From TrEMBL:
InterPro entries recorded: DUF2809
Entry annotated with the keyword Membrane: yes
Membrane-spanning parts: 21-40, 46-66, 78-97, 124-145
Organism: Paenibacillus bovis
Signal peptide start-end: none
Keywords: Membrane, Transmembrane, Transmembrane helix
Protein's name according to its UniProt entry: DUF2809 domain-containing protein
Organism domain of life: Bacteria
Coiled-coil regions listed in the entry: none
Pfam families hit by this protein: DUF2809
Length: 156
């Protein structure tokens, strides 16, 4: 049973170690994060109040992190974290600009999801938390994949 479990981890690790496998894992992370973010907005009444208030923005920033990891995979998670932070902060500060043409975009569903509606300092903290959690998950997932490879090598 242990051998079967370790061989499964080894398959995941070997696939994740390939460039295509890593990109696929980041794409899956993006899709799952998007679904969780949309669900956090749709099912607000089912979530604890603090989670309903903060989850959407944190998940949005985490999705940006996964997207940057997808596009810049060989670079460190710190590069993606800083890039996601800069991008998220720029989007938030862009909400201080209130021209008619951009407000028309913001009033669409997609525009509201991407650009937001109004500047809030609390959103900056939510973005930072979401990126930090995504970075921690990224490190843990990479560590598990590397550990699985070590376990598999020791079995041979």
């Amino acid at each position: 049973m242990i051998r079967k479990y370790n061989s499964r981890l080894s398959l995941i690790q070997r696939y994740a170690a390939s460039r295509q496998g890593t990109r696929l894992l980041y794409l899956v992370a993006i899709i799952l994060t998007m679904l969780l973010g949309l669900a956090s907005r749709r099912y607000v009444s089912l979530l604890p109040h603090w989670l309903a208030v903060h989850a959407g923005d944190a998940l949005w920033a985490a999705m940006i992190y996964w997207g940057i990891r997808l596009l810049s995979w060989p670079r460190s998670c710190w590069v993606a974290g800083i890039g996601a932070g800069v991008f998220s902060y720029l989007i938030e500060f862009s909400q201080l600009y209130q021209a008619d043409w951009i407000n028309h975009i913001r009033h669409t569903t997609l525009g509201a999801l991407i650009l937001g509606k109004g500047f809030l300092v609390a959103d900056l903290l939510r973005y930072t938390a979401g990126i930090g959690i995504a970075m921690a998950l990224d490190v843990v997932i990479n560590w598990v994949c590397q550990s699985a490879n070590i376990i598999h090598r020791q079995e041979r």
